[in-house]
Amino acid sequence: MSISSSTGLGSGMDINGIVTQLVTAEGQPQFNAITKQETATQSRLSGLGTLKSALSTFQTTVQKLKDGSAFKATQAVSSNESVLKVTTGVGSVAGTHSVKVTQLAKAQQSVTAAEYTNSAAAVADTGGTLDFTFPTGSTKTAFSITVDSTNNTLARIRDAINSSASNNGITASIINVDSTVTPGTTVSKLVFTAKDSGLANGFTLTTTGGDAGLDKLNTATSANYSTTSAADAIISIDGQTATRSTNSMTDVIQGVTLDLQSLQSPTDTPVNVNVSLDSTAINKTITDFVSGYNTFRTATSNLSKQGASSGSNGTLVGDSTLLSITSKLRQDTTNTVSSATSSYNSLAMIGISIDKDGVMSLDSTKLSTALSANLSSVSDVFSSSDGVATRLNSRLTGYLQSGGSLDTQQTSLGKQLKSLTTKRADVQLRLDNLQKGLQKQFIAMDLAVGQLKSTASFLTQRFG
Fold it and tell me: For the chain, which ranges sit under pLDDT 70?
């Protein structure tokens, strides 16, 4: 096409402007319709995402009450934490115990008596091996380090030991200290430390081959080292003796960890360990359940609210899925518990109620009375086979699982958005083709007008 034609110089018309307006008029209603559908679909998809998040958060709270462990929460108190600290965990049972710490566990540590000028000093002039062994039955692995001219310094022996793939029981290090042989000078010494405390984790270092320099690392000669011997922790509990390799005993009292802090003398008073039911923790778990339900209710209320104008409506206002979920969860919460073992067979009977607006509240006095009167029955209200937490968790799992009703709807909405994207591209393609066609028609018209003008000008000059 000529420049004059594309710019409308033949007819004097703004061809590009006219074509653009015609194409826009043709396509805008279609794009508006697609945008409206996209907005509605995205809004619903966002609403379902918010609903699933609220359901998942509520389920986390529910699951803390489902298996009944919350009603077995205990706390432990030590009468002397400078000697013994205690904590409780799963499986702990209320009770009182008398404990005396008669020995603390220690890890073996051996410091060479030999003094070296620095970490680069040679230990031996000829090669040999360092052989580390452990007591029979130990979980540690015996291993050997070959010493030769390439690694016979303190630093390289240290590195060879620490990097050995077979070494799971020893850590080697170097210390720089005052010399006991030549006062006023600093010397280096090798230090071998067991990675774990206890007699079973002690070690022996013997040497094979080499010379007198290598022999100075042999622990069989007591003069070669300053040694802290390995030791087990020993306690007397309720008149019985318990020995462990560490100062943290986790299996002496079921579900209770005893952390030994210091040694007691024979005349010291035993430490009293009292394990009792943690009513504060139980009350908090139930209070969290009430708060969790109300948080969920607030989220669903916002999703379903109906404002004065459409712009202030919740993203799932009038949605049947949301209405069904809130209704069923409320029923699961308020219905009686058929598997309860006593007169406490509903949340209302232990002080938890829901008002006409759907807000859950807790009567702390009524709950405390129920817990004191029959703890196991209160547990049944939540965690028995038909307990509130049991059926709520089952219901929530159904809503949240892959392939569930919400997941299926989200997948369908995602497909709708992809379809609308494709539809928008199709409309744009048709409009692009329309624009090209209109441009050709207007350009042809413009050329014809230009030619007519040229002919008219000729005739005027010829016959004027």
Answer: 1-12, 308-311, 464
Place of tokens 């949240």: 400
Q: How far apart are CA 147 and CA 125, in angstroms?
A: 10
Q: How many CB atoms lie within 10 A of CB 103?
A: 15
Tokens at 260, concatenated: 């030994």
Rounded CA-CA distance 315/116 in Å is: 78
The tokens describing 185, both together, are 């000078």
Q: Per-domain residue ranges for the chain?
A: 1-73+278-450, 74-105+233-277, 109-228
DSSP bridge partners of 248: 259
Rounded CA-CA distance 339/349 in Å is 15
| Structure-block tokens of residue 407 | 């997941």
Contacts of 364 (CB under 8 A, 6+ apart): 283, 351
Amino acid at 124: A
On whether the CB atoms of residues 229 and 110 are closer than 8 A, the answer is no
Paired tokens of 437: 């066609």
354 touches 330 (CB < 8 A)? yes
Nearest to 322 by CA among 334, 309, 313: 313
Q: How far apart are the first and last CA of the chain?
A: 33
pLDDT by residue (tens digit) across 253-290?
999 999 999 999 999 999 999 999 998 999 999 999 99
CA distances from 77 to 94, 233, 239, 255, 275 (A): 11, 21, 19, 14, 7
DSSP summary character for residue 173 = E
And the tokens for 299?
Answer: 């989220």
Q: What is the pLDDT of residues 64-108, one digit of tens each?
A: 999 888 998 899 999 999 999 999 988 888 899 999 999 999 999
For residue 196, give the nearest of 136, 244, 143 by alpha carbon.
Answer: 244
